[in-house]
Design a protein that fits this description.
Blueprint: H1 3-12, H2 26-35, H3 41-44, E1 48-52, H4 59-67, H5 75-78, E2 86-93, E3 96-102, E4 118-125, H6 132-148, E5 153-159, H7 169-189, E6 199-203, H8 210-222, H9 226-239, E7 244-249, E8 254-258, H10 265-285, H11 291-304, E9 313-316, E10 342-346, E11 351-359, E12 362-369, H12 376-394, H13 402-410
Parallel strand pairs: 1-3, 1-4, 4-5, 5-6
Antiparallel strand pairs: 2-3, 7-8, 7-12, 9-10, 10-11, 11-12
Helix pairs in contact: 6-7, 9-12, 9-13, 12-13
This protein binds guanosine-5'-diphosphate and magnesium ion.
Length: 411
Amino acid sequence: MNDYGQYDVYDNLDREATNDGPLFLDDDVDHAEEKVDFDDPAIASLPRVMLMGPRRAGKTSIQRVVFQKMSPHETLFRLEATQGLERALVDHTPLCRFVVHDFPGDYYEPSDFEGGRTSLIFVVDAQDEPYDHVLQSLTSTVTAALQVNPNTAIEVFINKVDGELFLSDESKYDCRRDVMTQVTDELAEAGVSPDSISIRYHLTSIYDHSIYEALSRVVQRLIPQLPTLENLLNVMVSTCSMEKAYLFDVVSKLYISTDTGPADMQSVELCSDMIDVVLDVSGIYGLGPSHEAIRAAANAAKGKDKSESSAVAADTLTSEVPAGDLEEEIVDQDSAYDNESASVIRLSNGMVLYLKEVDTMLALVCITRSENFRRKGLINYNIGCLKRALQALVQPEMDLSSGGLVRRVAE
Ligand SMILES: Nc1nc2c(ncn2[C@@H]2O[C@H](COP(=O)(O)OP(=O)(O)O)[C@@H](O)[C@H]2O)c(=O)[nH]1
Ligand SMILES: [Mg+2]
């Protein structure tokens, strides 16, 4: 766990940061409910992610592991049954803000579905066969939700696809196929045509990266500016001859957008691991008043040792990029992530991972071939433009024509 995770969680809940004691006790959650005013119109109008499904399917575990950085093993003994609806605000970066509703079980009121942009995640325990009863409940929940709010995005998480029962990929795919067939049949029986609704199926486990991948896709659907973000990243990737570019919320480690080229889970996982490395290293070496001195030392060491590691190793960390005219003041001196955060990791297969801060708690992580990474000025200039375009997206009054800015370098 990185230091930043602690800061942000407490900030969000309007609590004082403390360094001792476990991060989340059960009463922390009650406390969170007390402190955040969910009836405040600004918060009530945010998109919602509703975690529903049978008891012990893993709803609370998913929420704690991804948004509150509880370790997956801790969910085994730290979690008690959820007694009532628990809500948590996820507000790390301006482009991606939403409220998570964690339901206690198969219980809901039709009025729970009222509201604006909503993703309903129905969590199914893949290790608890047969699924008949659960999938009937899924169908009735989905129908009720769609009656109240026809635009609800339905996401089925087939959770706990880990352990002895799911050693091979085939067993996971078989499980997903069974669930899909049964749900489609049940929905057709209930008079809902599967083509008329948006329903997606995800194989997940809190013990690996699959839960981050699935939630990233869920969250992306909630962002109204997603097409613009994808467009910006497409231009970025083609202008700078990159292989792939992701925008990551560095706290939750969900990627909120990527270019439209094919994405593979391994590269996403690699980029996500890079965020951990950067936050951990800057948490140790990049903080406080000695920040500058340590950075100078790191730069000196970097100059001395130019030999490249053949392993997948972080050979150059933190503040690789000179603060150009696009950089602003450091926002928070004590944060492990600020507007100077940047990192380069060279992989043994000739690829380079480049991470750069682009907005509050938002990082651009790109994968590029090392020969294309030589044009770093171009890359940095374009990232600067992207950064301004993102600011304009959040504050439209800035009136910056982003696409034009990015392309200007290409021409
Ligand atoms: N093996 C495995 N166990 C999980 C997973 N997700 C949750 N669990 C376990 O399932 C149990 C119930 O989880 P909980 O989050 O309380 O379920 P909820 O009632 O749906 O909120 C806990 O012991 C978790 O450790 C998973 O992906 N894999
Ligand atoms: Mg629960």
